[in-house]
Specification:
The complex is a heterodimer of chains A (555) and B (100). Chain A is an alpha+beta fold. Chain A contains 18 helices and 21 strands. Chain B starts with 7 loop residues before the first strand and ends with a helix. Classes of the chains: A alpha+beta (555), B alpha+beta (100).
Chain lengths: 555, 100
Amino acid sequence: MYSYSEFDAAFVAERNRQFRAQVERRIDGSLTEDEFKPLRLMNGLYLQLHAYMLRVAIPYGTLDSRKMRQLALLAEKWDKGYGHFTTRQNIQYNWPELRDVPDMLDALAEVDMHAIQTSGNTIRNVTADHFAGAAADEIADPRPVAELLRQWSTDHPEFQFLPRKFKIAVTGSPNDRAVIKAHDIGLQIVERDGEIGYKVIVGGGLGRTPMIGKVISEFVSQDDLLPYVEAIVSVWNLLGRRDNKYKSRIKITVHEHGIEDIRARVEERFKVIRPTFSGIDVQLFEDIKAAFAPPSFRDESAAIYETAYKTDPIFRSWADVNLAQHRAPGYAIVQISLKAHGETPGDATAEQMRVMADLAEKYGNDELRISHEQNVILPHVHKSDLPAIHAELKKHGLATANIGLISDIIACPGMDYCALATARSIPIAQEIATRFDELKLEHEIGELKIKISGCINACGHHHVGHIGILGLDRAGVENYQITLGGDHTETAAVGDRTGPGFSADEIIPAIERIVDAYLELRTSAEEPFIDTYRRVGMAPFKAALYEQAEAYAAE
Amino acid sequence: MARAFTPKVVTANALIEGDVVYQTADDRWTRDLSEAELIEEEGLANLRLAQAEGQPELVVGAYLADAAPSEDGPQPTHFREEFRRTGPSNYFHGKQAELN
């Protein structure tokens, strides 16, 4: 785990001091809202439907118990006892009062955290694979480079007034769990002739105009990475459309100019920039890497785990679904679901945060991760500790065995909180989860990713959901459009729209018809939804969605 | 053809708490939509909005929201305003908890 250097700590303290003074000046009337708004956004403070919202960065989704307990403290002291983990590895507090926010930021600084650049037209929180450092399929831990990028991008003087926001994600594995192809820049750690480097993807993004990122370079060496990334942002900073915010993201720039043109421009710019990087960044990277050294793994019997697995069906069901393969023998990656049926996806109470912090400290090398899928991960757990962990999770509503299943839904806050939303997302997620839990079908259905956004901006990643749901306002009524066949992984794809949308009352039965059709169409229980969709295409699902509904209506 | 004017209330968020607030006929800010002033004339609506915007020390983001008359005062005509006056649907938080 990286700890703030003196420089980091002083920088954050100074920013917090400045913001405290800005809040005071806003309250005493010396600053107008127009003057204050960009200042508060630079520090992650939004004004939403019912209240202010503070968005706190969790760089590359990594926390330790001390940080998690502090997040719990914020929830309890200045909010309503909970926090909401987002699809970009941030946590949002929905109810702070303006005058308390400087104290919240100071409390975050005590544990090396901040809310800087979680909003505005800057480089946002750098995200990473939530299995970083633990995954069996990993070439290298993506967190050191994510931390290097965090330091480079924070308050970077050239990149404080970009054409629009800019998001970077990193994966260290060929299996992409960080959605790198839907980011402005996606980095994939690769190995070539024994040398570790980066495949660089550019121009991905969701929102109004979804695009899958394109490869701009197959291999950039570690020494060249920072100047190369800087060259990309620099080229876009000049070319990016500032006349139309719907055309300002780099995905549009790449689309309009073509990837070859952008690549040529980046290479030209890189030649100019490269000599200005003296190698300090490479040295710094080595220091950062040392901070992320893997823990020492225990070599002991996992017999307790085997016994619990054989004798306790509830534990077995949880272990089958919520564990992932660890790179060390005898170890597992534990995924704690924040998607209990009927609850709000991604929400955790202060008490739950403390329970997870305690478990991480006691059993998990003091490490926690937040996934873009809005769950919490204990990355390093010896299998012999799993029964005890499961028992503790169960007591606190954290043992739902549904990772990757139909109720493990990504949902943005939607119109229950967000000022931009056009419809609600959370109640739709709650109803789908509750319905399929009642049907007892979710394990039978198997892997199926539903992702819901409450507006076209697509924070809920609906374009890349196997089933995507987009909530819109159609003539003053909530209406939900469905897409099928989206994919957020290394085989990323944007889903296809099924046709006309459904009302809030109709959307749950519509999802049921899609799932019923899949269960009919699949070759066997081994064929997941996305494979069936790719094999049979849209037509049978469309028929199930619309023709059946017409038949019912005619009855 | 210009759209016919429909009745409005002036709404905003309170500067300190962020709460949804509405302008009353006697120039107060209330958290209860039923106490808001329902404005039936376009020129007056624009004037009242301008007056609200002149109070940056109290409120943020003032705008005109559609509302309909009722025995219990103005009522929202769009679901967004219904959520704003009530609070989120996933928890009993916000106005639904605080006003009753």
